[in-house]
Write a structure and sequence with these properties.
- By secondary structure, the chain is α/β, with parallel strands linked by helices.
- It contains 13 helices and five strands.
- It has helices at about 1-5, 15-20, 30-35, 50-60, 75-80, 115-125, 145-160, 165-180, 185-190, 195-205, 210-215, 215-225, 245-265, and strands at about 40, 65-70, 90-95, 105-110, 130-135.
- Helix 4 links the parallel strand 1 and strand 2 (about 65-70).
- The longest helix is centred in the C-terminal third of the chain and has 21 residues, at about 245-265.
- The protein is globular and about 60 Å long.
- It starts with a helix and ends in a 6-residue tail after the last helix.
Length: about 270
């Protein structure tokens, strides 16, 4: 919080008020608190053993109506649901770090999770200004899967001598980062065209690594079916011809807004 004060994001007077709302209690006092809790966010270390021990205690002390969530970023919700007494009110919630700044919270549910439990927690976190995204029980959430691929490939480029760390970070901050701050990844595919990604994937698959760059079947199918994106009227999204110009203008405005923001900080001159 002190860092946010130093950066003029919050007033120093708010710090003690926030601190007064936080209680850190010893384990021997947990039963009373947990018994009254409606929603619990578990964040013990990332091992199944630690999770199992934590849920053993939660099963003992929590009310039957409590909703339990895990903030794990790596362990499958289906692997942990068996630790919970009432798995229908259990799911994973990944708060992107730093959680007090980044708005996105990813929810990963298992097939037995009640929709009502998700809706209840969603309303709570949205009330504090968070942006909830929902994904199923597949491994990795959304953001961790994408960022792991990007980070590993960037490390490989340094390893292979493609570019220095400084040049790669410059390219990702002012090229990759700016564009994907203005356009979602799948929206970006639609905007350029699925066939562009297909051709680029084929070329890099041959010149770099087949396993890393092979286009997925969904892209091959979209190109075959002429679902190229904006230019054909359908891709991952559908586009009405009468709305295309307005949409293109909106994308340009979003991108320019990001450029103006970076320029205003003095990091980049337009």
């Amino acid at each position: 919080m002190l860092g946010l004060v130093e950066l003029d994001v919050m007033d120093s007077e708010q710090v003690p008020l926030i601190q007064q709302r936080i209680d850190i209690l010893p384990v021997d006092q947990s039963s009373k608190v947990l018994g009254a809790a409606e929603i619990i966010f578990e964040c013990v270390p990332e091992t199944l053993q630690a999770k199992e021990q934590a849920y053993g205690a939660l099963n003992e002390f929590c009310s039957e109506d409590a909703i339990l969530t895990s903030t794990t970023s790596s362990i499958l919700v289906t692997d942990m649901a068996r630790f919970v007494k009432n798995p229908e009110r259990f799911f994973n919630m990944h708060w992107l770090n730093p959680a007090y700044i980044i708005p996105v919270v990813e929810i990963s549910y298992h097939h037995g999770t009640q929709k009502e439990a998700i809706a209840r927690v969603r309303s709570v976190v949205e009330a504090i200004g968070k942006l909830v995204v929902i994904c199923g029980p597949a491994p990795g959430y959304i953001v961790p899967r994408l960022q792991a691929l990007i980070m590993n490939e960037a490390a490989r480029m340094v390893e292979e001598g493609v570019a220095s760390a400084e040049e790669i970070d410059k390219a990702t901050r002012y090229g990759l980062g700016l564009r994907f701050a203005a356009l979602g990844v799948l929206e970006f595919i639609d905007f350029g065209g699925a066939e562009i990604l297909q051709r680029a994937s084929h070329q890099m698959s041959e010149s770099i690594n087949q396993n890393r760059y092979k286009a997925p079947a969904i892209i091959e199918d979209m190109v075959r079916d002429n679902k190229l994106g904006l230019k054909s009227g359908e891709g991952f999204y559908k586009y009405e011809e009468s709305e295309v110009k307005d949409y293109q203008r909106d994308v340009l405005d979003r991108t320019l807004s990001m450029l103006r923001h970076v320029s205003s900080t003095g990091q980049l001159k337009l």
